[in-house]
Amino acid sequence: MELLDEARKLTIYTAYNTNVDAIVYLNSELIQKLIDEMGAEAVRRRMEEYPRQIEEPLDFVARLVHALKTGKPMAVPLVNEELHSWFDSHFTYDVERMGGQAGIIANLLANLDFRKVLVYTPHLAKKQAQMFVKRPNLFYPVVEDGYLTLKHPHEAYRENDPIKVNRIFEFRAGTKFKLGSESIEVPFSGRFIVSARFESIRIYTKEKLKKFLPVIGETSDGAILSGYQGIKLRYSDGKDANYYLRGAKEDIMLLKRRKNLKVHLEFASIQSRELRKKVIYNLFPLVDSVGMDESEIAHVLNALGYSKLSDRIFTYNRIEDTVLGGKILIDEMNLEVLQIHTIYYIMYITHADNPLSEEELTQSLELATTLAAARASLGEITSPEDVKVGMKVPYNERGEYVKLRFEEAKRKLRTKEYKVVIIPTRLVKNPVSTVGLGDTISAGAFTSYLALLKKKKAL
Ligand code: AMP
User: Fold this and answer.
1) Average pLDDT, the chain
2) Whose Cα sits closest to atom 23 in ligand 1?
């Protein structure tokens, strides 16, 4: 693919979040056992309460069953460290691998043979470092004797760093189980993430490295930043979300100090409305590009005060509402480009003066969905050749309907001041894994967007 070859010439910086994903493949028996252990009635009651975090096993089972019933991928924070032993006694982990957006994106771009991939994560324990692929184009910035040096993550780990393990429960469409007298069939394949939220894991750039961010920014073609969902509102040492968000703002400005480095923020679900709002208001105005999925745009709109529109997106998933929400977001935050991915389509919204044409924007999305389809088919992308697998995956059967509804939406809404493009996704029927597909879409979309800008001498 020609556009991928252009994108591969780029140098990309990515930070902050990495973790180890411990994966469990769920089946009917396993789910049934969990429900029986807790009692169907108790699970049902707790599902109605919809716990925002996991403090006890019943919270976990209730949110899991909710995710299974809707087939929607979800992530819920685990705040009670004592539950580790409960999880470990109930599950054996089938696979351990790289998790966290920055880690997933770094491995992906390194495997795709990008010119240079710089990945920064404030905590790099040995086990975490080993989750990085062994590629000569992958680097971790280290400051030694006051100088910046680039080392492969395998050579850069620190013995005593903390490590974050997320448990990922993969589920398949068609899995059947019973919640009391109710029979449930999982409508879509997906995953339920229990993400560890502990005091020791922070999202920041170490002081020593901060002063080199302008050089890193100058020598990169783009930055992909993510992991802000891992910030806690308060820490026991007195630091809070404001402290870490001030640091995050500083990092973006330092990266942009010597040139107008394009920065993409990959937004992930944030359960706390207060933190969600802070991330949006502090960081969106500083970045050029934002990527998110459909439920996240609904959450973001809710935090910005558009609760009716947000509810509509949650309930009906209508394209015209997503387009409207996207327009509001790029206007209020003055973004250069917003990318929204959903199960059936991916969308870009920009202002009308964006240097890329709608055709070019479409090409960028095509690459994004092709990469995701390749990853869904193979489990991981290990070389640029793998993208061919994605090209063989057909567009989903709702594709034509999606296009039709989009044309309708375009006629209804005033879209003259914007460029809005949409493509149906290439959807793999039985994905090997669904972890990291959204990150793959966003990394593919943003890097190819940069490559197209560069071709136009607009970068
Ligand atoms: P996220 O919710 O951010 O993890 O993003 C998941 C995205 O991955 C969806 O919006 C789809 O566009 C894409 N996706 C999900 N399942 C599949 C699949 N089976 N094959 C290809 N792409 C998929």
Assistant:
1) 95
2) 427
